[in-house]
Specification:
Blueprint: H1 9-13, E1 16-27, E2 39-41, E3 50-55, H2 56-59, E4 68-75, H3 82-85, H4 88-103, E5 111-122, H5 128-142, H6 158-177
């Protein structure tokens, strides 16, 4: 919509990485790993394309049958395009192999599902906050009824998006009451 408006150039130039989410289910009775906590984060410098794992049955037990273990494994780092060139079968195998190695278990999943997010994970490089501030100031000046929320602005997780939406709605309600 704003392709000719230079005030949005920062957003257009923002680096976007790709990721995939591999959700995999295991039979709890035969799972040979030691599950502690609700998941783990993996640094960019670790030698794996994985970035995180959530143990769904421990983080949100209401989402998983009692006899299952469900892992949500995140794949893809800036500069690693494995998500873009592997097919679902190969990506599933990679995710299983890597999470088995990292979490020290050998049980095979009953199933794996892949969801890809291509070029949609903003990378917050040095100067990000200043660039976003400039875009927002431009929008206030030139598009006073436009509101910007989402992953490039104030956080990339679902809770961040929900928080941004709630804050925006409250801001609109408050401004209409005056």
């Amino acid at each position: 919509w704003f392709k000719d408006d230079e005030g949005f150039d920062f957003l257009r130039s923002m680096e976007q990485s790709s990721c995939a989410i591999a959700i995999m289910a295991f039979d709890k009775a035969t799972f040979d790993g030691n599950l502690k906590g609700s998941g783990l984060l993996i640094t960019r410098n670790t030698d794996t394309p994985l970035t995180a794992c959530t143990i769904l049955n421990q983080k949100w037990p209401q989402t998983t049958p009692n006899d299952k273990i469900v892992l949500r494994v995140f794949i893809g780092k800036p500069g690693n395009d494995v998500v873009e060139y592997l097919d679902d079968k190969d990506l599933s195998e990679l995710a299983v192999k890597e999470i088995q190695r990292i979490m020290s278990f050998s049980t095979q999943p009953e199933w794996v599902r892949i969801n890809r997010l291509i070029h949609c994970m903003p990378q917050y490089n040095v100067g990000h906050r200043a660039g976003i501030t400039a875009v927002r100031e431009h929008v206030v000046k030139h598009y006073p009824n436009l509101h910007l929320i989402g992953t490039p602005f104030d956080g990339i997780g679902i809770p961040d998006g929900v928080k941004q939406a709630k804050e925006l709605v409250q801001s609109i309600v408050d401004s209409n009451e005056n």
